[in-house]
Amino acid sequence: MATARPVKKGPSGPINILPDIPYKKTEATFKMNKENDIEVGDNMMIMNIAPSAFFTNCAELIAGDRITKINAMPVKTKAEAVAALKGCVGSDVRVELLRRQFTSPVTAERAKKIGLTRLDGFTYFLLTCVKESTDPVSSFGFTLKLLKNRAHVIALDPKGIASIYFCIGDALLDLDGTPIPFNDIEFVRGYTQKFNKNNRFTVVIERPLGTQALFMYNMLFKLMLPQESDVEMGPDAVLIGKEAANMHRMVFRRLKPRSVYGPRAANAPRNEPTLKTLDVSEKAKNIRVASSAMELKIASDIEDEDELKPVDRKSHAMFDDF
């Protein structure tokens, strides 16, 4: 019988090495060619993998995995793990690991396809998202901030599907092997909207792991978060704003802006200003928005309508300073 998958919430404080997400037990085999092929931290976590070992002798490991056993022998301290690994130089090693669920190592083929460049202090892994039949049909449930070719997860809806797979601080580098275009949030939005239909996609994740990388990323993360505001909006107003934004996005998506490099009429004066700024397609000319899509009922905290007082209609100019 299928069991419900745990739902997590993103951390409210700084990004941590150990995100608040379930881990699973897994096994991996690798060969210790050199003592510095992997670096183990105080929390038994693999903090670094030598660049020469990424896709060769340590291809089954992910920086961020936590070692629990080496060759079937439990290890509980960094000293025990380092000593055991030194004794295995030149031979194969079988390790039991705790690994973030739904993740696997990035293959050499995938890394080459997306032009992956690894940064010091960061970990990289492949995350597989699968929509189960019990998952609700809804929005994916995360907020992204796009910086160049990385989509950073800055907020998660605890009720959304994204909260099962992603952590705050994850950076999406591609989707199903297609690198994220430069500052193109519509590419990501359109892809996640297809999730309800396709039921599956994979993404390469970049996440800070080293102390210096965590410090620098948290500084960047503060800049990516929306600025705090003292103004609180009611849920009805928020809902109206969301509906209006969705409607405008659907309308403007069908409009084609005129290119400054477009053809120019031969008889048009060179200095005559162009009044027409939008080349509207035939489809855009016939856009119709149902009135029902533009109406939302606003809840009231007054039970008896007789208690409502008439509004004194005045010019809006009276409220310019509000």
From TrEMBL:
Transmembrane segments: none annotated. Signal peptide: none annotated. Coiled coil: none annotated. InterPro entries: PDZ_sf, T15H9.4-like. The lineage of its organism: Eukaryota, Metazoa, Ecdysozoa, Nematoda, Chromadorea. It comes from Cylicocyclus nassatus. This is PDZ domain-containing protein.
